[in-house]
Amino acid sequence: MKVGNGPEKENSEEPQQLSPVLSALFARRYEICREALPGLFFDPWSEWEGSPTAQEQNLVERNIIDIDFGRAAYLLHRQFGPIEDERTVELLLVRLIKCLYLRIADSSSHSRLIVDFCHDVLNRECHLEYLDGILDSRRELGEEYLSLEASQTWILYWIAHSMDILDHCLSDAEALGIINFCESCRSEKGGFGGGPGHRPHAAATFAAVSALCIAANQQPEAYDIIERQKFLHWASHELKTKLPEGSAFRVSRDGEYDVRATYCVLATASLLGVLTRDLTADVASWISSLRSFDGGFGGEPSNEAHGGYTFCAIACLKILHDAGYLCDEEFEKLVSPSRHWLQSRQRLLEGGFQGRTNKLVDSCYAFWLGAACKIAEVPFNAAALERYLLRYCQDTKNGGFRDKPGADPDFYHTCYALSGLCLTAQSQASTEYIKTPLPEINPVYNLTKSTFCAARDFFGS
Ligand SMILES: [Zn+2]
Fold first, then answer.
1. Which of 170, 196, 317, 444 is most open to solvent, judged by the fewest CB atoms within 10 Å of its CB?
2. Residue 257 is a catalytic residue
3. So what's the pLDDT on residue 121?
4. How far is the CA of 294 from the centre of ligand 1 (A)?
5. Which residues are in the Prenyltransferase alpha-alpha toroid domain (predicted)?
6. What is the pLDDT of residue 401?
7. Gap from CA of 365 to ligand 1 centroid (Å)
8. Residue 248 belongs to what domain range?
9. What is the pLDDT of residues 286-295, one digit of tens each?
């Protein structure tokens, strides 16, 4: 029997046929996992009534168990050859699986096997190949990106930041590609649109400014494309909105206001050194009105708590705090009710974060929630998160990261999975099984520390 989801890049001369004993155990894999790891699995009855995701959740869990069991059975086969005694093999399998999910320290003589089993590596070269050719226009985006017509500056940023994380210095052509494209998106009013000729938009502006800061590592004139006084004028006069709860920002003139736009404006202003008292006045009180009953933040008052919006809210508070517009006590008072909600978003079996209660894990929340945890000083299981990203979301054949096993990779999830790996790489727990030397990132702006510091130095804080 062929183990379909075994290791992706094993040596072709390795045996592909499992012994009858291992094959029989593989057929009982879900049952064995559920017995060995009671409580780690999704239980539809313990979740909210009418859960729409029970089936999908089971599918993700099964994908993950398939991958892990395939690998475990394969490793046992390689190490011991055909073992006749089913009970002995089952005990070994259960020990491997428990070690993986529960992180039980191993004292047996099979510790080498367990290290092999838990060890996952970042395939740098194949991710760089996946990202190659877009910034300098040697390759066109596939049609799956057509719906992102209004987010083209984001695509530049996702690719450039991923390359920065992977320690790839942009070529002159790649840096110029970013500079020329962003210039074509720049608005006379200040800010950038998502594509050439588009109206300026807060999110597209933050992405363009971030991409330009990365390009400036190679071509310092990238900074000159950014007109920060025009940006400040546009953000203050066209985007800032007074509301009963405080002040927020709109994505564009007459566009919707929410915490995502508010974060993009504050982060851009802070990065460019134009975070004025006028711009920030009353923003913290509006953000505090976004808290939901369970401790997270929604996009607008009374909305459900959401990982992306919670990141935006906490990052805004951090920006205001670091600029001296919130004192330590105020910051702590606003952030501390979110800690339990943040920590509860990491799922034990998968190791990844879910964006909302009762939703599926998704690799992009490795950054959105990992960074919010980092800013709010909430501990999370970094080794389990790395395992989720590297084992289940990394495409080691074609490059890139997917949101969950079974899906296709894309530039967005590649950027945020890699950013999440930078956060786990800074954690001590990371080094136990997985050594992935990655640069430090600033969790508020999601730029590498060196790119962030260079931009701050240029614009003055
Ligand atoms: Zn996602």
1. 196
2. no
3. 86
4. 22
5. 122-447
6. 98
7. 6
8. 124-459
9. 999 999 999 9
Name the pTM for this structure.
0.91
The reported pLDDT for the residue numbered 4 is: 37
Task: Output the CA torsion sign for 186, 187, 192, 198.
Answer: negative
Distance CA 162, CA 362 (A): 18
What distances in angstroms separate CA 415 from CA 67, 93, 156, 206, 443, one per listed residue?
23, 34, 11, 15, 13
What's the CA-to-centroid distance between 354 and ligand 1, angstroms? 9
Q: In CATH, what number is assigned to the domain containing residue 389? A: 1.50.10.20
Distance in Å, CA 366 to ligand 1 centroid: 9
Q: Tell me, what DSSP letter sits at residue 338? A: G
What integer pLDDT is reported at residue 115 of this predicted model? Answer: 72
Of the three residues 85, 118, 151, the one that is the final residue of a domain is 118
Q: For the residues of 258-301, what is the DSSP string, one character each? A: -HHHHHHHHHHHHHTT---HHHHTTHHHHHHTTB-TTS-B-SST
Distance of alpha carbon 370 from alpha carbon 98, whole angstroms: 24
The residue ranges of the chain whose pLDDT is under 50 are: 1-13, 431-434
What is the pLDDT at residue 439? 93
Query: Considering 257, 325, 365, 388, which one is annotated as catalytic?
Result: 365
The answer to whether residues 114 and 181 belong to one domain is no
127 is catalytic: no
Give yes or no: residues 42 and 183 share one domain.
no
Residue 177: both structure tokens together = 């590609």
pLDDT at 436: 58
Helical ranges in 81-165 per DSSP H: 86-102, 111-118, 124-131, 152-165
Cβ neighbours of 50 (radius 10 Å)? 8
Catalytic, out of 364, 393, 415, 422: 364
pLDDT at 10: 42
Has 139 been annotated as catalytic? no
Same domain, 295 and 206: yes
